[in-house]
Structure formats: C-alpha cells, structure tokens
Amino acid sequence: MSNTATLATLSGSDLAADPNWWRQASVYQIYPRSFSDSNGDGLGDIKGITAKVPYLKELGIDAVWLSPFYPSALADGGYDVDDYRDVDPKLGTLADFAEMSAALHEAGIKLIADIVPNHSSNRHAWFKEALASPRGSDARERYIFRDGQGDNGEIPPSDWESVFGGPAWERITEPDGTPGQWYMHIFAKEQPDLNWSNREIRDDFLKTLRFWSDRGVDGFRVDVAHALTKDLTEPLLSKAELSVANSGTDGFDDGSHPFWDRDEVHEIYVEWREVFNEYNPPRTAVAEAWVHASRRGRYASPEGLGQAFNFDLLQADFDAEEFHEIITRNLAEAAESGASSTWVFSNHDVVRHATRYGLPKGGGKHAKGQDGKGWLLAGAPAEELDVELGLRRARAATQLMLALPGSAYLYQGEELGLQEVADIPDAERQDPTFFRNKGVEIGRDGCRVPLPWAAEGSSFGFGDGGAHLPQPAWFSRYAVAAEDGVDGSTLEFYRRALKLRRELQTSEELEWHTAASPDVLHFSRPGGWQTVTNFGDMPVELPAGTVLLSSGPLDGNLLPGSTTVWLR
Q: In what order do the strands lie in the sheet with 284-287?
C-alpha cells in the first residue's frame, strides 16, 4: 500500500466506496456516556448521539470513534465489558445502534467501534462460569488462573502490579467455599485478562468483529492492542527483575516482556485482517499500542491492523524543535510500514490539551512532563494556569495537526475549547485509578465531564436531568449554543479548519522550509498548501501568500507562542 495515497474531496457516496478513506480521515471520538442524554437519566446514550448527527455533519468530520457502549458495570468507564455483542441497556438497544449507524452513514460519516480484547468484565458469562467451575476446567482456561505461592497458596503467583495500582492478581473463592486460585488482571480486578492462547477466545472475537461489521461498523479502535498474548512460563519474573530489564535504553523492545508487546500478538491480527478483508470496502483498525516507536509499524502493517496510534505529539511540550522531530520521524515510520500516520492531542485518558498548554513548560512545578496530572494532584492552583494562552496554543497545535499528512483524531469537546474540569469532589469521582492510587493518580474524570450544549439549564443542555459527573459553572461560556455562529469562536474555527482540510487534502507528503525563526515551523503540501506556526515569544513576519485560516488574530505578523496560519 503506497504511503502517497490521495484522499480527494469526496461526496458521501464516494467516500463510502473508497478503501483508503481512513488514511487522512478526521476522526471524532465520542465518549457515549458524556456526549448527549436523550432520556434525562444523567447518562449519555445512543439516541443522544443520533440526535446530534446534524451537529457532527456540520462540524465536518469523516468518522466517529465510539468509546465502549457495551453492557458494563462501569468499573473502568465501560472498558469492563459484560457482553461484546450487545448495547448497554442504560445506553439503548441494538435497534438504537442500527438507527445511529444509518444516520451517520446517511450524513457521510464512518463509524469506528472501540473493541476491548485484552480483558472482559468479571460479570461476563464466561467469568461467572469460570468461578463456578473447578481448577483445570475448560471454563478457567478462557482466563489466566494460577495457583498461589506459599504453603496454602496465599501468596499471589507473582508480585506484579496492576496498571491501576495494587496487585495484578486477585484470589477467588472456590465453588466449595475454600480459598482458591488467583486470576490475572493487568487493569482493575473487575477486568480479568483473557487467555489468548485459547483457540475459543480467538474464534469468538472473530465472530464479534463480523457481528459489528455486519451492523455498519466501518472500523475498530483496538484497546490495549499490545497486551493480548502472554508468556507465563514459570518461574515468573519478579517486579524487580522486570524493572531492571526495562531500565535500559530499549528495555523489553525485543518482544520478550511477559505480557507487553509480544511478537506473537501479530498472529492474532493477521486473522483479524482476513476478516476485515471479507468486506467491501475492507474494515479498518487502529491499534492503541504504547510501544517503542521501532515496533509500532508491526501493528500498522497492511497484513495486520493497518494503523496504530502515535501519542508522541500528545506527550510533547509546545515546542517547535520537539514537534519537528516527532513529525519527521513519524512520517518516515509510516512510509516504511505502508500505513498512514496518526495524530492526537486529547482523548478520554489524558488531561485536555487546552489545559496542558496553559501550564508552564514542563508541566509546572508540580509535574514532570506536560501531562498536567501533577498540577491536578496539587489542587489545580489557578495562578499556575494561563487559560487564555492554553486555548490559543491548543487551537494552533490542532490547526497544525489538521494540516499534516495522515489521520487526525479529535476528542469531543475540544472543538469548544473545553478545559479540564479540575474541581470534581472526591465523592463524585468515578475513575478507578483515583481510588486505587489515591494521592498518586487524580483519575481521568476531568476530561469525561458531560458536554455543554446550552448556556444554561440543569446540565447545560446535556439532557433534561442532571449529569453523571458535575459540570462547572464556567461551562456556560463554552456551550455549543454560546459559540454556534459566533465569529472567532473555537467551534467556528474547527468547522472552518475541517472544511478546508477536506478541500485542500492531497497526497501524504510534506516539505519543510527554512523559517524566519527557530521557533517557527513552516511546511508545504502538494498543491501549494503551506502551514506556518510560531511557537516562540516574539512576533514573526508572515510569508507572502493568501491566508486561508488563522488560529488567532493577525496584524501582518505571526503572533508569538500560539499562532498557526494556512497559506495558499
């Protein structure tokens, strides 16, 4: 597959038939429980999404990525799945899903579904059966059960820690009431890891891929794509041994880690690709794989998932040199793998970039890096956050991203300029990372607060009732109704940028140009489309050309620290 595939300006029907639609698509992530509530129960739902399809069409996106909508106890925001082939009754029905899918496609918008293959929930029928079955049973073999250490098996099989804090093993009570085996959970204890060495697991997920593809899903976002296969050959490495091995330059970047990024995981995705190719156009996939850049291309290969997230810009400071290096390197990696690159600044797991960019470089005195978590843990001191600067930089960064070759991923609410909600009371938080790592992790609730659609009301137009996470009073200024049709608003800026992105789209190439300052990035795309961004502290004279779009005001200069313009 050529890395110079072109996405022309297509009508809805043409886009539907284009097998390469995903390569330079603008994808909008919806966190369903916080998007729009149709029945006033405080929880967003499928009908709420369907009602907002006209808004999504006007925004100008190519696809919607739907975070998990499956039946779930919400131990991890829906990523604890009770049933992979159904809709959570609190969110709707399969009929509602079909109506939403049809409405999106009628509007020329593709549908990408989140799929969670590393673990099920502990309420899944399979896990209930495993708990009711004896050691060594077929039901237990669907998961990762091990006997404990010690005289009575009272010590976990290893001292590994869960990503969410605490041990990665949970002991069960056997059907006869005695203390029993332990099961592995990389994440919350309510998310037991599936055993991907079991052929039944592999076959069942192929069935799930076909189930949703037959219902109009055009692609899949694969959660924790690098964790499915595991080597639990005893003796298991200790936490200290894992830490030492991972402290080198490359760590486990050879595929030898017992449960992260093992080579054999790609055998699974070869089978998935065969299923994707049964459809016309083929279904797409993008891997969430937090792996070394040198190994990312394996997930993005045409024989595998086809595309993988890179989170490098998301993790970067607002810095010209850092952006230049990341963009250059990722485009080269994409060319080598045959995939297209991906770009993202915000999602359901990170502090919104309008807030991150308003903190001092490096994240402020409370944090290492630009993730904003330390600032939140310190109580979000207002004097450390420059809200206006953060929004200006966020708009500039997003505009630069939308000019890049590859696909752009946007997170609901960023088109309104939403900040992170920092002042959620402990009693109203929901994220397990907060409760399992109190004082160490603040959790992800601050970017998952329900969207404001109206400038007033009990939930700012989210629904007729309240909202499942508290919305701050300042949401009123960022509501859709407050920005719709308002010249200079962030919403209108996004609409204009997305419209121009589609009109100007060209082959997946760029050429860097020498800029007037080391703090300025200047590149062009085929057809005469140029992008200039000032990351510095001083104004820079604009190059000659017609300005198509600017992320901020212009006075003949490129204003410092926040401004991007497109030129033609």
A: 284-287, 219-222, 110-115, 63-66, 26-30, 407-411, 342-344
Among 323, 489, 339, smallest CA distance to 24 is for 339
Mean pLDDT of 516-529: 94
- Is residue 471 within 8 A of residue 36, CB to CB? The reply is no
Bridge partners of 116?
A: none
Mean of pLDDT values over 515-529: 93
By the 8 A CB rule, do 283 and 220 touch?
A: yes
Residue 563 pairs with which residues in a beta bridge?
534
267 classed as catalytic = no
Cis peptide leading into residue 235 (ω within 30°): yes
User: How far is residue 382 CA from its own chain's centroid?
Assistant: 27
Q: Is the pTM of this model over 0.85?
A: yes
pLDDT mean over 26-37 = 98
8 Å CB contact between 309 and 289: yes
SS3 of 137-169: the string is CCCHHHECEECCECCCCCECCCCCECCCCCECE
Give CA–CA dist 121/99, Å, rounded.
27
SS3 content of the chain, % helix, strand, coil (to 5): 30, 15, 55
List of residues 6+ apart from 189 with CB closer than 8 A:
122, 162, 166, 170
CB atoms within 10 A of CB 364: 19
Residue 281: cis peptide before it, omega within 30 degrees of 0: yes
List the catalytic residue out of 278, 303, 456, 503. Answer: 278
- The active-site residue, picked from 223, 261, 415, 508, is 223
Respond yes or no: is residue 193 known to be catalytic. no
7 vs 25, 49, 320, 558, CA distance in Å?
8, 27, 28, 30
Distance (Å, whole) CA 405 – CA 20: 13
Which residues lie across from 150 on neighbouring strands? none
559: left (phi over 0), alpha (psi -120 to 50) or beta: beta
Q: Which amino acid is at 88?
A: D
Query: pLDDT-based confidence at 176, cuts 50/70/90?
Result: very high
Each residue of 183-241: pLDDT tens digit? 999 999 999 999 999 999 999 999 999 999 999 999 999 999 999 999 999 999 898 88
Return d(Cα 176, Cα 172) in angstroms, integer.
Answer: 11
Closest CA to 504 of 424, 416, 358, 399: 399
